Fold:
Amino acid sequence: MTVVADITEDEDLANLTRHEQLVFRRKSQFIVVPEIVPDANWRTFGYGLYIHTFLFTVVGKFLYAIAYPLQSVYLNLDTNQILASRALSTSAWAMKFWIGILSDILPIRGQRRRPYMIISMCLCFLSLVWMSLKPLPDSYYTVIRDDENDRCYLNRSMINNPEAKEEGISYVIITLCCFLALAFADVAADGLKVEYSKKEAEDTRGSIQTVLVMVANVAIVIGTLFVGIGLNGAAFGGSFCWNIPFQLATAIMAVVCLLCLINSIFFITDRKGIVRTPLADHMASFWATFQSRETFQIFCVLFLWAITLAIDSPAAAKVKVHWAKVSPFVMTVTQLIASMFEFVGVFLLKNFFLNSSWRKVMLISRLISVITNNLVEFITISGLIRNPYFYFADDVVASITDSMSRLVGAMMVIEICKPGLEAVFMSLLVAAFIVGICIGQPIANAIAVPFNISDDMRYLRDSPEDRWMVAYSFIITMSIQFASMPLLLLLPSQKKEIQLMKEKKKLYPRLAKCYLIMLGIMFVASILISVATLNERFACMKLFGGQGCDD
Structure:
């Protein structure tokens, strides 16, 4: 692979690998044309970071996958509580910006990435051990065993343990601790990804990112299979009369996390001898880059787009349980198929659309996702087709375009960030996206209040009026999603357009300050709203998406 770069300062030379320094000293201009294999750092990257990405994603997918069978079925949390739990869990990733700054400016024993990966995986391991030692309460609904037909099912008209909902917040807290730890590890790994991606030639830049996405997709398949088969018992909404004990499942994930920790210790090689950067200098460098037009514009558009992504009807959680009757096993099968189609999306982008217009890829992806998602929801609500496999048809179709959109977003950040700011900009992108989602979900809860879609009786009655109330909530959120699509036209079309923006050197310091202040305020507000919604005393309030409290 050809790598071309210009060295203008001694610091740049110090950041190079030993092989590159030797080549530079022999030539007045830094033009290196090595293969990936001869370079020690590339070899370590190929083994260590690939293994880390695989194990890391297995644990992360497990934590995301248990949300539906545990919260929606086993504990039977309300729809607004489910969304609040999801927002609170994902808000941990919004902390990546501050973690990224810490990783960039404060090396531990001369390394910026590897020590943080080790520390974070230790914390994740301890959190999963904590979850595995916590006794699981009895399920909210009663499990019926039919010996004549040799099957088990969940009777949603017979309440077995009404206090099960109260245990939901404790599992959300433990999961939040896991995600915080994973966020630390992800920031360090993102920094390594960008460092190596920046070395790629311009016409092939993004290839490393696509390979890592493929590795992550394989891990998603493993994590999904584990939850879909292991937790497919009747108590979790499945069709089996057995399931792996929940404590054992989390203990197995703790072992996977331990393997990831060992990999970080022995197989991740970080550049050594990095000197601590003063915070003021680092923030000045960040600010000089962020207030530029190309950076500010990309982050604003993606933030607003993330808000509209999260404005989806909360009724989807109940439609999935009561009308589509989705079991963990069915969810596993469909997600496996979707993961396979994600490979198709990555392959198409890498081989055919790597140099296509980014805004067209994002716009078409969003259009397909909104149409297929709402079409499936409306068909299920109307009762024309109520099949658990059909319910996930939109996920399978949209998986191709969604994988392409995620890669495009990552490639934009690779183009705008400067050396030394890799972790900060990748983490800020994720933070902006997560804060947007955390803001969008309370908005979705507020929109749903007039339709009373959190009441289980609305789905059990299944009258025409009930169907229309649920459908109205989807019509409103769908309209908002369509109205937001023109925002994507503000994105740059390709790498060359970003380079032209950089040459013009237009700065917007006031707007950039307002954006960062607004981002911080919204992040704090979203966390407070999510915490209040999980509390039984506040969950019933209309302000937080409830139907009103009795007293």
Notes: The radius of gyration is 24 Å.
